[in-house]
């Protein structure tokens, strides 16, 4: 029966099924399996200071921001698949600098290479999957399909993120050499993605003018939403940047770091399977829930001097952070309904990078002033206040839009 059903599939459906499998494997290796050890390697081996680490993040975020729109343009111009492959190739050598040059400049080059490669992949990968789903009439399943692909990816990544940090005791460079192999696997997987024939035809007939698309999407009405979404995603990306140093301050052994990260992945895998539940929420409701989850977790990290609440908060924070962006992208792609998907998602990524800079600046300031524990508490409270203020602006803008829609027919 299974063979018969497969034989009756259209070519587009077969390609979609194959792409979903490849995308699931792809998601395993997009997450840096050596990430729990980056700050430890730089601080312990390279003697890099906290301020220098923050500077690395800021510089690489600025470079990623500069590349974001051109990367979206390239994705829409040459194709999302080619952009994904290009980004994977750029990012592949980045872990080698942590292994062989674990000082400020090596860490900076590694960070710049990885995030420059990510600029080409982010948006393009999601736009690629949206195109393949749309070609088979399954566009509304975007959140469900990508959420479950993320689940499979996180399960595989969990195994790697448990095992790889354990090799740090053998030699401090070994986890980063394994990271290089994992990113090379990403290049191979990206080369196996295939466009359905219907999508190829649409791309061939499309007049490519992504600059015009950017002008349409970054309007005064949309800036409030982009600022809010960018700040929250920046908080999700960088709010726990110093989690390993927080754990050390709380007395958690380095050997547990990989286990904690893996537990966060397991939570993310479970959430990914059910993330389409958030499709039922109205946008403003989801945005508020999103803010409360992220800010609440950071506050919990610094609320007590005990390790277990901080560990639980980091696991929830990281697990939720793995899947929340799928819902946000789904709402954007459904609401905007524009041909140039990668360019539009690049606009969100551009504002996210501003959020990255804001988040790392705030958390570094509070940690330097208050210490690792109290610093996270103050950062969480500050982020909650800023996020709520931005949410109010988004809410007011949505009210204005509704009023304009009501007044327009009457006129």
What is shown here, in short?
Helix content is about 80%, strand content about 0%. It has about 400 residues and is mainly α.
Number of helices: 19
> What is the terminal separation in angstroms?
60 Å
H/E series = HHHHHHHHHHHHHHHHHHH
The helicity comes to over 70%
CATH superfamily: MFS general substrate transporter like domains
Apparent shape: globular
> Segments where pLDDT lies below 50 for 5+ residues?
none
CATH topology: Growth Hormone, Chain: A
Count of discrete domains: 1
**Which structural class is indicated by helix and strand composition?**
mainly alpha
Taken as a percent bin, the fraction of beta residues is: under 5%
Based on DSSP secondary structure assignment, what is the total number of beta strands?
A: 0
Mean pLDDT, to the nearest integer, reads 83
Main sheet overview: none
What is the CATH architecture descriptor? Up-down Bundle
Question: Rg to the nearest angstrom?
Answer: 21 Å
State the name of the first-level CATH class: Mainly Alpha
Supply database-style keywords.
single chain, 411 residues, mainly alpha, Growth Hormone, Chain: A, 82% helix, globular
Describe the structure in your own words.
This protein has 411 residues and is mostly helical. The chain has a single domain (11-410), classed as Growth Hormone, Chain: A (Up-down Bundle). 82% of the residues lie in helices and 0% in strands. It is built from 19 helices and no strands. The longest helix has 39 residues, at 372-410. The chain is globular.
């Amino acid at each position: 029966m299974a063979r018969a059903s497969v034989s009756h599939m259209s070519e587009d459906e077969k390609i979609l099924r194959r792409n979903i499998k490849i995308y699931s494997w792809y998601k395993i290796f997009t997450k840096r399996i050596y990430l729990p050890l980056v700050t430890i390697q730089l601080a312990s081996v390279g003697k890099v200071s906290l301020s220098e680490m923050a500077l690395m993040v800021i510089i690489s975020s600025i470079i990623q921001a500069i590349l974001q729109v051109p990367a979206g343009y390239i994705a829409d111009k040459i194709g999302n698949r080619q952009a994904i492959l290009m980004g994977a190739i750029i990012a592949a050598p980045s872990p080698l600098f942590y292994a062989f040059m674990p000082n400020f400049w090596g860490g900076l080059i590694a960070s710049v290479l990885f995030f420059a490669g990510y600029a080409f992949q982010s948006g393009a990968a999601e736009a690629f999957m949206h195109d393949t789903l749309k070609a088979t009439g399954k566009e509304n399943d975007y959140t469900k399909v990508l959420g479950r692909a993320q689940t499979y990816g996180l399960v595989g990544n969990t195994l790697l993120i448990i095992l790889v940090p354990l090799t740090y005791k053998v030699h401090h460079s070994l986890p980063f050499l394994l990271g290089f192999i994992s990113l090379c696997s990403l290049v191979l997987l990206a080369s196996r993605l295939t466009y359905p024939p219907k999508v190829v035809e649409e791309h061939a007939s499309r007049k490519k003018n992504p600059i015009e698309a950017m002008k349409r999407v970054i309007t005064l009405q949309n800036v409030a939403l982009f600022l809010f979404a960018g700040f929250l995603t920046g908080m999700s990306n960088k709010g726990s940047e110093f989690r390993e140093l927080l754990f050390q301050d709380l007395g958690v052994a380095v050997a547990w770091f990989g286990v904690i990260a893996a537990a966060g992945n397991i939570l993310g895998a479970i959430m990914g399977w059910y993330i389409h539940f958030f499709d039922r929420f109205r946008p403003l409701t989801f945005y508020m829930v999103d803010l409360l989850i992220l800010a609440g977790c950071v506050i919990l990290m610094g609320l007590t001097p005990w390790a277990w609440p901080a560990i639980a908060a980091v696991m929830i924070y990281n697990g939720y952070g793995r899947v929340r962006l799928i819902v946000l992208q789904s709402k954007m792609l459904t609401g905007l309904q524009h041909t140039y998907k990668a360019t539009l998602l690049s606009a969100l990524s551009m504002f996210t990078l501003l959020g990255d800079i804001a988040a790392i600046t705030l958390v570094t300031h509070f940690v330097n002033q208050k210490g690792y524990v109290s610093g996270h508490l103050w950062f969480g409270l500050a982020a909650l206040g800023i996020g709520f203020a931005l949410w109010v602006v988004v809410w007011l803008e949505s009210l204005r839009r509704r009023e304009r829609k009501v007044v327009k027919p009457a006129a």
